[in-house]
């Protein structure tokens, strides 16, 4: 499995679904039907500085005029939908808004820094589209998504559940001559917002009234039902590969039943699973994200709510309810990570 974004589909991710459908549809429309209107969506920083066309900071940073960028950014948004499921649509939208605004400042600073430092005048136009927030999402992806090894290649090199995402990011990074400016400003804005530098998260956020209005008007249009099956196959997999993956899944379930018997015997003998040993990085990371040293006097936050459907799925695989609850809490309700650690321990 290359993906690390939980269940397939876009349920509980209306913002991600909107970003996938609306900009992609407009990009195709401009490329195939209305090519003469593309000039209104060009990201022209020179026109912004010289002619004060401030509206280009909005129109030029929403729709991709290059279909390759549209495809790569759509795949990345689909994989990053896990953050909307974990933190909620409002917090996810606030991160996108904050990184989108901060990256404008980063673009201007980088262009001027290159011009004054090296005497190089950059191209008049930068790559258009919703690219900077996509690069900004790599910051929480690197910090909060655990790295699970999938396979070894060439000895020390290994393929993990995050390898394909980084390859897509590299493909997007190398898709144009000056896209590195947008990428660097996006990463810098993501670091600034994720680390809460200068308290920008208190200024650049989606207000509660706007979140309620969007939930009432737009969420019914972009909501999706939860998928009934969780069968996963690799991208571009053939029928033989799918059959092999199903056989591996059956073998894993047989091994799981054996592990469950050993676990029940251990529990009957008074043994307990050491969850702090299994999930130390996740628990430490959760403490770093949600606790502040200056607020140590405040009472501890209540335990994380665990969806019953995820607990039921783990129990159907042979795990006890207690182990399923602890694994899901320690992994921030990531069913893939919880299942992986339960299988390995």
UniProtKB/TrEMBL annotation:
- Keyword Transmembrane present in the record's keywords: the answer is yes
Gene3D superfamilies membership: DNA helicase RuvA subunit, C-terminal domain (1.10.8.10), Rhomboid-like (1.20.1540.10)
| Gene Ontology molecular functions | serine-type endopeptidase activity
Q: What is its main location?
A: membrane
How does this protein lie in the membrane?
Multi-pass membrane protein
InterPro entries given for it? Rhomboid-like_sf, UBA, UBA-like_sf, UBA_UBAC2
Q: Which SMART domains match?
A: UBA
**Location(s) in or outside the cell:** Membrane
Q: List where this protein forms a coiled coil.
A: none
Instruction: Look up keyword Cell membrane and say if it applies.
Output: no
The UniProt keywords, alphabetically, are: Membrane, Transmembrane, Transmembrane helix
Q: Which residues form the UBA domain?
A: 305-345
Q: Name one Pfam family in it.
A: UBA
Taken from the UniProt entry, a GO cellular component term is: membrane
Q: List where the protein spans the membrane.
A: 92-114, 126-143, 164-188
Function (record text): Restricts trafficking of FAF2 from the endoplasmic reticulum to lipid droplets. In association with LMBR1L and E3 ubiquitin-protein ligase AMFR, negatively regulates the canonical Wnt signaling pathway in the lymphocytes by promoting the ubiquitin-mediated degradation of CTNNB1 and Wnt receptors FZD6 and LRP6.
This chain belongs to the protein called Ubiquitin-associated domain-containing protein 2
Q: What is the lineage of its organism?
A: Eukaryota, Metazoa, Chordata, Craniata, Vertebrata
């Amino acid at each position: 499995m290359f993906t690390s974004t939980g269940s397939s589909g876009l349920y509980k991710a209306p913002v991600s679904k909107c970003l996938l459908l609306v900009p992609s549809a407009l990009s195709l429309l401009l490329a195939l039907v209305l090519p003469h209107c593309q000039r209104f969506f060009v990201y022209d920083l020179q026109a912004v500085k010289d002619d004060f066309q401030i509206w280009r900071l909005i129109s030029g940073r929403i729709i991709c005029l290059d279909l390759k960028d549209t495809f790569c950014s759509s795949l990345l948004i689909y994989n990053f939908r896990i953050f909307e499921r974990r933190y909620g649509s409002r917090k996810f939208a606030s991160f996108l808004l904050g990184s989108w605004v901060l990256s404008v400042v980063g673009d201007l600073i980088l262009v001027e820094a290159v011009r004054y430092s090296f005497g190089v005048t950059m191209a008049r136009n930068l790559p258009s589209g919703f690219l900077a927030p996509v690069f900004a999402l790599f910051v929480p992806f690197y910090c909060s998504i655990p790295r699970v090894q999938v396979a070894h290649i060439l000895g020390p090199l290994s393929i993990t559940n995050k390898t394909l995402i980084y390859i897509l990011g590299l493909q997007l990074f190398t898709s144009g001559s000056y896209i590195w400016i947008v990428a660097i400003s996006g990463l810098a804005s993501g670091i600034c917002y994720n680390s809460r530098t200068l308290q920008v998260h208190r200024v650049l956020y989606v207000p509660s009234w706007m979140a309620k209005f969007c939930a009432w008007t737009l969420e019914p249009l972009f909501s999706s039902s939860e998928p009934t099956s969780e069968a996963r196959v690799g991208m571009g997999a053939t029928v033989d590969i799918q059959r092999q993956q199903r056989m591996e899944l059956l073998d894993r379930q047989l091994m799981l039943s054996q592990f469950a018997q050993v676990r029940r015997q251990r529990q009957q003998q008074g043994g307990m699973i050491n969850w702090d040993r299994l999930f130390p990085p996740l628990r430490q990371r959760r403490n770093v994200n949600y606790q502040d040293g200056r607020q140590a006097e405040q009472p501890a936050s209540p335990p994380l709510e665990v969806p019953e459907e995820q607990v039921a799925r783990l129990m159907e695989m042979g795990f006890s309810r207690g182990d399923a609850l602890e694994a899901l809490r320690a992994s921030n309700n990531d069913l893939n990570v919880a299942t992986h650690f339960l299988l390995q321990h």
